[in-house]
């Protein structure tokens, strides 16, 4: 086997292991992975929209307990929840469309 081919196979195997361990997304560069919303972002957006944790949880597709943990910094929202939180931060008028 050529050295170049061996290096490609070895790199592919390393990437497969990272994907399996959840350290890397399959078929997605790290630069495209959404950055999780911070505790301050979550709490700020929820309060700006005048929503309880339970109401906000229903809108972003999470449990009230998860929202509480996000706001306390214990856990971080998923990529899709973070994206929705940032959209609502920039466009609070969309809340009526989501409810």
Descriptive report:
This protein is an all-alpha fold and 99 residues long. It has two domains: 3-32; 39-98, lambda repressor-like DNA-binding domains (434 Repressor (Amino-terminal Domain)). Helix content is 62%, strand content 0%. It is built from six helices and no strands. The chain has helices spanning 3-20, 39-48, 53-60, 64-72, 79-90, 95-98. It is elongated, with a radius of gyration of 19 Å. The mean pLDDT is 87.
Compact summary:
The chain has helices at residues 3-20, 39-48, 53-60, 64-72, 79-90, 95-98.
The main β sheet shows up as: none
CATH superfamily of the largest domain: lambda repressor-like DNA-binding domains
Order of helices and strands: HHHHHH
In CATH, the topology of the largest domain is named 434 Repressor (Amino-terminal Domain)
How many individual domains? 2
Can you count the helices?
A: 6
Architecture (CATH level 2) name of the largest domain: Orthogonal Bundle
Please give the oligomerization state of what you see. Answer: single chain
Q: What portion of the residues fall into strands of 2 or more residues?
A: under 5%
Radius of gyration: 19 Å
Number-wise, the strands total 0
């Amino acid at each position: 086997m050529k050295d170049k081919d061996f290096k490609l196979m070895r790199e592919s195997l390393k990437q497969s292991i990272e994907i399996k361990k959840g350290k890397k997304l399959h078929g997605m560069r790290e630069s495209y992975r959404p950055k999780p919303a911070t505790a301050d972002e979550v709490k700020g957006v929820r309060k700006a929209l005048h929503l309880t944790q339970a109401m906000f949880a229903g809108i972003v597709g999470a449990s009230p307990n998860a929202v509480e943990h996000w706001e306390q910094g214990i856990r971080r929202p998923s990529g899709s929840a973070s994206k929705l939180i940032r959209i609502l931060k920039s466009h609070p008028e969309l809340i009526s469309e989501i409810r």
